[in-house]
Specification:
Blueprint: H1 2-21, E1 42-44, E2 49-52, E3 63-67, H2 70-73, E4 77-84, E5 93-99, E6 109-119, E7 122-133, E8 140-143, E9 150-158, E10 162-169, E11 174-177, E12 189-191, E13 200-203, E14 217-222, E15 225-230, E16 238-245, E17 254-260, E18 279-286, E19 289-297, E20 319-322, E21 326-332, E22 335-340
Antiparallel strand pairs: 1-2, 2-3, 4-5, 5-6, 6-7, 8-9, 9-10, 10-11, 12-13, 13-14, 14-15, 16-17, 17-18, 18-19, 20-21, 21-22
The chain binds calcium ion (2 copies).
Residues 85-87, 89, 91-93 line the site of one calcium ion.
Length: 342
C-alpha cells in the first residue's frame, strides 16, 4: 500500500514537472528591443519586464517600468514598441500591442494597443485602445516635436497586403486612421518637407493589386490632425505610386509620381494592359507646397501591378520604371523624358 502511494506521488510529481516546463501554447514572442522608431533606450526582458537601459549596456535593466500581463504574453502576436514621453511631462510612457488570431469565419478583427503611464509613483495601464486589423503587421514612430510630440502606429489594413496608419491621440484617447483608403505598401516616410520643424508623412503607394485603391499621399499636421496636402486635387488623374527623390539635384527632395489619367476598371485588364498611357509627374516643394513642374507620358508598355519604382537617383541617373520593359526617365532641359532602357 505504501508503495502504491509512493508511486502515485511520483506520478503526480512527474506530471507537475512536465506541465510546468511545457512551453505556453500560442505564447507571443516579444522582441527585446523596441520596435518603434524614436523610442528611448529600453528593453523587454524574458521575465516579462520592460526596463529603461543604457545604450552601451542594454542587457542590464537600469530602471524597471512595467511587467507585461499574461494577456500580452499569451497572445498570438505582440510587439514592444517602446518607451516615449508622449505628453511631455518628463516621465516616459510605455507602448505595447497584442493580437489574437481570428477564427476562420472572420477576415478582420482588432489589435489592442496598451499604454502604461506613471501615476502616483507607479506605472499603471493607462489606455487600452483597439484598431481594426486584417491580420497582424507592425510599425510605430515616435516624433519628438513642438508644441507636442506624436506617435503613429501601423497595422495590416486592406487589399491583399496593405497596411493602415493610425495617429495616437492621447488627449482624446483614440487611435485615428490617417491613411484613409490607401492600403500602404512598404513603410511611410517621416520627413519635414517644408522645414517648419514638424514632420510630414509620405505614403509611397497602394497595396499590391486591384483589391486596393490607387493612391500615394503626403499628410501634414493641420488643425490638430493629419490631413492630406498632396494630391491637392480631387478625382483624376489617380496617383498610383510615388517616391521622394532629388531629381533637381538641389539637395531637396521632389515628389515623383505615376499617374493614371483615366478611371481604370481593374477587372477588365489582365497582364497590365491599359488603354491609356500612364504619366510621370514631378512636384517641387516650394514654400511648403508641392508645385507641379513636369508631366510626361510614359511609353506604351505593359504595367506590372507592383507599385514600385526601379532604381532612383542618386543610385541611378534615371528614374527607372520596371514594366514589361525597363523605362528610364530623366531631365532634358526643362522637361522629363522617358524612354526604354537598353
Ligand atoms: Ca509622459
Ligand atoms: Ca513640415
Amino acid at each position: 500500500m505504501k508503495n502504491k502511494f509512493k508511486f502515485l506521488f511520483l506520478l503526480f510529481y512527474l506530471l507537475f514537472f512536465i506541465l510546468a516546463f511545457i512551453p505556453e501554447a500560442n505564447a507571443a514572442t516579444l522582441n527585446s528591443e523596441p520596435k518603434g522608431k524614436g523610442s528611448l533606450p529600453s528593453r523587454f526582458f524574458p521575465d516579462g519586464t520592460i526596463c529603461l537601459v543604457n545604450e552601451e549596456t542594454p542587457s542590464a535593466c537600469l530602471k524597471k517600468l512595467v511587467t507585461l500581463p499574461k494577456i500580452v504574453r499569451k497572445a498570438d502576436a505582440a510587439t514592444f514598441y517602446g518607451v516615449f514621453d508622449i505628453d511631455a511631462d518628463g516621465i516616459p510612457e510605455v507602448f505595447v500591442d497584442y493580437w489574437y488570431a481570428f477564427n476562420k469565419k472572420q477576415e478582420n478583427n482588432s489589435v489592442t494597443l496598451l499604454v502604461y503611464k506613471k501615476i502616483n509613483e507607479k506605472y499603471k495601464k493607462f489606455l487600452k485602445l483597439e484598431a481594426e486589423t486584417y491580420g497582424y503587421s507592425t510599425g510605430a514612430w515616435f516624433l519628438k516635436e513642438t508644441p507636442f510630440s506624436k506617435a503613429i502606429f501601423m497595422t495590416r489594413y486592406g487589399g491583399s497586403s496593405g497596411a493602415g496608419l493610425f495617429y495616437f491621440d492621447m488627449k482624446n484617447k483614440s487611435l485615428n486612421l490617417i491613411s484613409d483608403l490607401i492600403y500602404l505598401e512598404g513603410y511611410p516616410e517621416f520627413i519635414d518637407l517644408d522645414s517648419d520643424g514638424v514632420s510630414e508623412i509620405f505614403l509611397p503607394g497602394r497595396g499590391r493589386d486591384r483589391t486596393a485603391n490607387p493612391g500615394a499621399a503626403i499628410l501634414h499636421w493641420k488643425d490638430n490632425g493629419y490631413r492630406t496636402c498632396w494630391p491637392d486635387w480631387n478625382g483624376l488623374p489617380s496617383v498610383i505610386y510615388a517616391a521622394l527623390t532629388d531629381i533637381e539635384k538641389d539637395g531637396k527632395k521632389e515628389v515623383t509620381a505615376i499617374l493614371e489619367p483615366q478611371e481604370i476598371n481593374y477587372d477588365q485588364f489582365v497582364d497590365g494592359e491599359t488603354s491609356v498611357l500612364r504619366e510621370l509627374g514631378v512636384w517641387q516643394i516650394s514654400e511648403g507646397k508641392p508645385v507641379l513642374i513636369s508631366k510626361t507620358k510614359v511609353p506604351d508598355s505593359k504595367y506590372m501591378s507592383e507599385p514600385n519604382f526601379g532604381r532612383l537617383p542618386p543610385i541611378s541617373s534615371n528614374i527607372e520604371l520596371i514594366y514589361s520593359k525597363t523605362i528610364g526617365c530623366s531631365k532634358h532641359g526643362d522637361k522629363m523624358q522617358c524612354a526604354e532602357e537598353r
